[in-house]
């Protein structure tokens, strides 16, 4: 069965997605910068009006997905990871059905300790096993290889630029 998930950033776009046949919503704010963590009050409005599952993108700022543990050679403080945990709790209480998360190391691998922290918070109050969501390095290599096979050269350049932290205007 195919599932149509639509990224939305407002009540109007959520309504349009539902009207267009969406099965699920990915809710964020600031789509112009690739999406940021959305507002709980707006999530409550969407959930009150629409009967679709809503997953919230968890991203505290534009740019990369490096949420470090305060090491001086890293660009961002641990506070971002703690902020994400609090935002997950707030959005869950506002009605979020799930969360879209990611955390990387400077080398581009999954930051497993950060992911464990986020998954533990996401799983609170749910019966799902967070370990099912961990992807191995080998799985990631396979995903990257498949992406390379599917994308055109131009698409690969755009994806690489985006992963390097460039906005869509700079690409």
Please describe the topology of this protein.
Elements (H helix, E strand, L loop, with lengths): L4 E4 L2 H9 L4 E4 L12 H10 L4 E4 L21 H15 L4 E3 L11 H12 L13 H14 L2 H11 L8
Parallel strand pairs: 1-2, 2-3, 3-4
Helix pairs in contact: 3-4
Walkthrough of the structure:
With 171 residues, the chain is α/β, with parallel strands linked by helices. It has helices at residues 11-19, 40-49, 79-93, 112-123, 137-150, 153-163; strands at 5-8, 24-27, 54-57, 98-100. Strands 1-2-3-4 form a 4-stranded parallel β-sheet, covered by helices on one side. Strand 2, helix 2 (40-49) and strand 3 form a beta-alpha-beta unit. Helix 3 runs parallel beside helix 4. The relative contact order is 0.11. The model is unreliable at 127-137 (pLDDT under 50).
Give the helix/strand class.
alpha/beta
Distance, first to last CA: 35 Å
Mean pLDDT: 77
**What are the low-pLDDT stretches, counting only 5+ consecutive residues below 50?**
127-137
Which term fits the overall shape? globular
Tally of individual helices: 6
Helical amount among residues, as a percent range? 40-55%
| β-strand amount | 5-15%
- CA radius of gyration: 17 Å
The largest sheet, given as strand count, sense and whether it forms a barrel, is: 4 strands, parallel
**Strand segment count:** 4
Strand order of the largest sheet: 1-2-3-4
* SSE order, one letter for each helix or strand: EHEHEHEHHH
